[in-house]
User: Fold these one by one.
Assistant:
Number 1:
Amino acid sequence: MSTLIYNATLVSDGLLFAGALLIEDDHIKAVFTESSLPALADFPAATELVDAHDMLLMPGVIDTHVHFRDGGQAENPAGNFLTESRAARAGGVTSVIDMPNTQPPTTSLEALEAKAAAAATRCMVNYGFMLGATEDNIPLLPSLPTRDFAAIKLFLGSSTGNMLVGSEAHIIQLFRTAPTLIVAHCEEESIIRSNLDAAKAHGNASPSMHPIIRSAEACLASSSKAVGLARQYGTRLHIAHLTTAAELALLQSGDPSHKLITAEVSPNHLWFSDGSYSTLGNLIKCNPAIKSETDRLALWRALAESRIDTVGTDHAPHPFAAKQRPYFDAPSGIPSIQHSLPMMLELALYREQGRQLGGRDYWLPLIVERMCHAPARLFGIEKRGYLRPGYKADLALVDLDHPTTIQPSSLLSKCGWSPLQGETLHAQVVATYVNGSTREQPGQALTYNR
């Protein structure tokens, strides 16, 4: 089967140009500039012709940080591979890497196999998994085949799923012996617990306390420790969901392929700030916490300066009723995968901080770099993340100026809510091609070049 998408504005490899793309079966057969495109009549009669009407054609987003809540065995009321992958496809996301803090936790090859078997039948995008580090399995990790998982996830702060690694000796052992990339959730647990005890002693149960309890100090202390160990042992480290301006001093600009230490930011930490707690409360409670406006703007600039390397949603659905509990009892996590790409385009093209740093020709290649190219390179994902002949036909077709207000009826995540309800986003994903098809069908397991 062949499909020609023509009259498009393509963006890949730092270039933005008018042209067309030919899909054959599940891969990209050819990429054309406007001047090199043959006459449409020259293509075989069976070729499906899709007029893009000058919309943006880009690689599908690779989201390397999602919580689809599906452990492969028991149904989770918050989400599963089917519901959350449908939300992902609607947002132009074609590949995801799922986190290990599921039930059961993904901390062994057997658990990986069970999760992969479930994803193979009900995940409608391409999928990979991180293997969770625990104090029990850290000695075993060097002997495991690293092509079976995307990275090792290390929780240095407690979060959903209770996978905290608190032993200093085990943390050092992991950094000394890790056979592949470590992705770390960096918050210093002792600082969090001290802040939490103080808040409970004062009886303060407001969501606005979240960035005080899970403070910038806790993030910096933990990130500094992880970076120090990575440098000491020459271990590749990726800091997940960076939230503070102070942590940026730990990072360097440049191509993530050439860095020992890289970092990710979530669209939520670029969109919201601590002033948002007064209206959204627990709906934006996540770990690490959304912090100050100063931090938000510093993260945005660092993304533009290549100090932050990737964008990952940390998509984490919870039932709406659970989010209505008192602050101390409400779970942490925000469902955001359906709108991550439109959010990034809104920030870049329509918000003041984006316009100050560059225009359309600057931001579109940069967003594709952070959301498609860099995740593929950093995690060694084979043949995805670019518009290149021979690569998998994972694509997003985007109308950059079709303002749409987010309504509950449009939300596809199983939890059925979003803190963006009522917001208007200009960019809309018109079509998502996963392995060459817009039809809903199971995706493929990601493979890694290591």
Number 2:
Amino acid sequence: MSPVITASLAAVIVYSAFNLKFKFYNKIYDEKNAKHNLCLALTLIICLSACAAIFYCLYNGNLKYPYEIPLFYTNAHEQMFDALLKRQLNIDIVPNSMLSKLNNVYDWDERLMYSFEYLWDRVYFDGKYFSYFGLAPVLLVYFPFYFITGKVPAAQTVCFIFSVVAVIAIFFLVIKLFKIFVKKVNLPLLILSIFAAQAGSLILMSQSSADQYYISVSSAIAFLALFLLFTFCAYDSKRVPKKCLFFALSGISLVFIVMSRPNIALYFLLAVPVYLSVLFSKDYTVSKKLLQVFSFAVPVAIGAAFVMWYNYARFGSVFEFGAKYQLTVYDVSKYSFNLSLVLPAFYYYFFQFPEFLKSFPYFKVPYIVLPSIKTYVYLTSTVGVFSMPSVWGFVCLPVSFGEKNTDKYKKSVLALSLICIIIMAVFDMCFAGVNIRYLSDIALVAVLFASVMLLTFFASFDASSNKVKFAVHNLVSILLFLSFVIGCCLIVVNERNNLINLK
């Protein structure tokens, strides 16, 4: 038996004994209780300590500018930082003339026919190199860090910064969601949910995998967490000035989601019921409703105008982010929705499970093979989101819908959370492929709202006997704990394996 499984079973047995003795199932969270808040503070400190530990293990110094290595060998974000400092939108590298002579420069097979050097996985358009990676990390981390320290942050530093932001945002987001959706929040389950959400969101995995790809992933997770946090803070606030502030921050976060990973903006749909609850509320006058609407709409409009200008200035289209012009393993412009990929999307994004090994590193992320699919699909290794057992909490959705005290707006959010992750999985499968980092597009939302449903399920047994409450509480605790375990395994064993390969 794998040591991971053995250790997990031992932890479950010990926890179950303590649960029975100290009656964890009867510990209701009181936000005014100092001891309860101290427990939560310690939970946050532990999570932030994990960020610090990963950073300490991987940190290898930041970069001098001008770079000590040729610009060609720096990552896409470092190249864009250099370009913007030089007041240009294209990367300051002259492409090899062979690129302009190919029939289809975006066809990898055609490029392989000739032996010449070019920038891998960058955009080639109109005889110039560009980056399709979002600008959010460059504008929010690279420039401030450079002006403060005089150095350019390494990938490990950038991912660490986003990881800290995400961990703090996820911590408060879990508490806020449970306050809104669960009538009585159990303290031990709240703490376990925070740990499960932190590890299950894959933000720590992204930090441990730090490179140009995971910088964008970390940025997207951080701003998605902030967007959801500010949106539900606005929903929960009673005073109009606070609602306006949170709606404005929500709008700003949405803009930076688009400037990190544009496809993640799909989760804007989760906020629609919140906006509708304001528009149809009888508690506000028309002027106060408009004030809240404009608080969100104005920063979004300004951000959208900037993004559209940036796209148009580079590619002549306000909606073109450059992905279809990238020099990578396939001509990305040929990607399209493919009905034959829907079932594989369900399997690999939801039901692909990891393997547990008897020898180090005791955990394996399986490599994917799709021999029966005729079209090209980018395939690497991954696990599905149901590998984290708490995500099975979605089966409790009918219980959440059956709650008499849950209004239609809250029910809409829960239903949309499931709909959105399904759409995102199919979209990623068709337009990106299979990769463990693509799982981050659905992991945070899946773990968060499945946990909400699990705690709602437990709360529905409030009037039951202690034996029943203990059994249900133990089940939910185990699901949350095992999600945390799987998330922690992915910090060590992943696409990059940086922690395993430490010298």
Number 3:
Amino acid sequence: MEYRIQNGICYVSLGGAVLAGAKAASGPSEPLVITVRRDPVRSRGFWAISDLSQLEEPEGPAALLPRSGTGGHRELAEFVRNHGASVLNTAFPGGFDFAAHWFRSRPERKTLTLVGLGDVGGTVLTALKLLGREIGEIRIFDFNEAQCRRYAMELNQVLPMGEPRPVVTVCREEQLFDCDLFLFTASRGVPPVGDQVTDVRMAQYEANRTMIAAYARLARAAHFQGLFCQISDPVDLLARAVYLESNRGEAGHFDWQGLLPEQVQGFGLGVMAARARYYAPELGLDPDAIRVYGPHGQGLVAANCPGEGYDPAVSERLTCLTREANLRVRELGFKPYIAPGISSAALSILQLLRGEYHCGAVPLGAAYFGCRSRFAKNGLETFREPICPELFQRLEQAYGDLTAE
């Protein structure tokens, strides 16, 4: 097995391309990047592993299960078990550049761009201003220029309360992707309160997909190396649309020179976790044992617990209550945007910036799937724990439904 080093990064190939010009090394060292080559339509791009056998697991919910083994390469397996590693899919032409960017030193406080200052966007922005000690600047963009100036003026008049808080500035269109995180909250086609719509999120899909495609192409043109945070609904399908659209060339064909799958994440599952916890006392459940997975809307899976003690009937009731919680707010005559803006977006993004596990839709092969994950030192890392077979079957069904969209 041949190890090579360039720019302080150690590379080894398990089917992927070899980095030209890299110097030979006697063995593995940190940071270690394992290169593979897989179909970009149905595989991940750059992610973290803690055991070499995780390379052998099928794409999909299997990434949520514990796994261990040597994978046939004892020296490499032992190193990965002790230190972890990154996996790079070299089917992406810009993969090596992304890996080099990932391991560079980064500013302690991040720069965010937020697009869309409607109900959700204003809520997200206010929460990030109040809580975002990890953020140096939030640049805001909306076609309503007065709205931008109003938010910048008012939020910069908020008292700091002892800790540094982000400054809010108005962003020009050409600066949109000059940031670490790009937050997209703009939305079209939200059904008015009173409309009889069973899945409000899916009602927005077509209008939002058309709008989001333009921003995906802008991210591609800017060679964006940060994270595209998709917040408007339906986050799972739109996150996938951002990824795919950014990888289309001018003629409309896929050339995979846009965003890597892990550069896009959907933020909708956080409020589902919060809603499930809200209903836990009503069902006599332990809120800390509850898990939520899958799509933000129809197809959501809520469970009373992931392993032993999983109760299908109780979990189905919990799923129904959680999935329809937004309709209960609409029945009162209001659009439900406060809890989603804070739980799904602001708080989950802050957890992400802190390296903590959080709820979000991340690429698991051919779909963006809601689960707990974090950005660790080697890349995107899913939370792994034992899941009982009956619950795991529900996750596979939800994943299959997403890939069929």
Number 4:
Amino acid sequence: MKTTLIQDACIVNEGQMFQGSVLIEGERIVRIYKGDDTPSLSVMESLDNLVDARGKYLIPGLIDTHVHFRDPGLTHKADMTSESKAAIAGGVTSFIDMPNTQPQTTTLKAWQDKMDYAASHALANYAFYIGATNENLEELLAADYTKVPAVKLFMGSSTGNMLVDDEQSLQRLFTEVPTLIAVHCESESRIQANKAKYIQEVGEDLPVAYHSLIRDDEACYQSTSLAVSMARRWGTRLHVLHVSSEKELSLFEDKDLKDKKITAETCPHYLLLCDEDYARYGSRIKCNPALKHASDKAAVLDALKAGRIDTLGSDHAPHLLSEKQGNALTAVSGCPSVQFNLLLLLEMSRENALDKSLIVEKFCHAPADLYRIQDRGYLREGYYADMVLVEECPAWVLQKQDVLSKCAWSPFEGWTFHHRVCQVFINGSLAYENGCFAEAPAKNLIFKN
């Protein structure tokens, strides 16, 4: 087995920040040296690779549990290889992909087909949700939840047949499925009523800012409160995705993750953008759930710090720019972001809005704990060596040519950054270094029941 020493880094891990080194043998971390504890001469002489990490931060690889890589069926705008490459460049070493592809991942065959395809096309560690419908409970009950991370449920607006709105189906789903249910909560009836109201008042050509009025905080709250009430009634493990509004926050608790069965995720764009930003970015920042008010943005950030919100995920959702053209009704929703979330959060840290340890907790540790991912998400002896080296650097401005996603654009073009991802290790192998990719052995994620 090859041995690699990442030497003299500023390690950010498990709420601590300290100077140290990490020794890798094969795929795993075998020793973490802290402070005056340094490798022996025999260790140094036996190394295959030595990485000088002075002046750099070393963190666990990000685990992005919320991506839409569009593969299969929508590969004109993204595919497994292009988006996992963008993810790695952003410090993401493991991803969990959503089921609303073509075909939808709502059967075990479709799920297995994605797994087989990813084995030769995904560059980062991978897993795939299986999606719920009103008719596929038997498929969900037959799934192997050591390999399937969770069931994805759309309660409210969705595409295709993935909107689960049958009361009996919901009850059986919440009481019988033996795993985490990850839910998108927006009330379809509220959305349709709002849409009809504004079309009557303004007409069909609604400016894009009306998207946030159509998909308002009440649409989120109505659906989220229903999901939470059912989970409490039946003792379901429930994870509410992409929380965007202050009103929803009252439904969650400020507790340690280990003490919760009902948890919440938010995304960096809800911490950085609000409805006032449509004036500058237009339909590029149209997403579901919609951006809310500046007060919601501040409240969601406070909830993340307080522990009311448990995880961060990108909701990376690439579309071609041509598909993003249009108004509140015609432009598609979703933004590509997986490559830049870590850098965005580090900018918030630089401005003292977030602590680096909190970023690591919410994007590395908590996803591993919540989804019960085996031996990842932490820098620990015996764990897989998934890790990222980041350094502060002179200011640079994101340009279109920097974007690696297949759709070839980012809503954050023109933003200024003061950090860069230097190196990324996946399963002990160097996968990325200063803009260049190396072949690293990606693995399917394993989940502890």
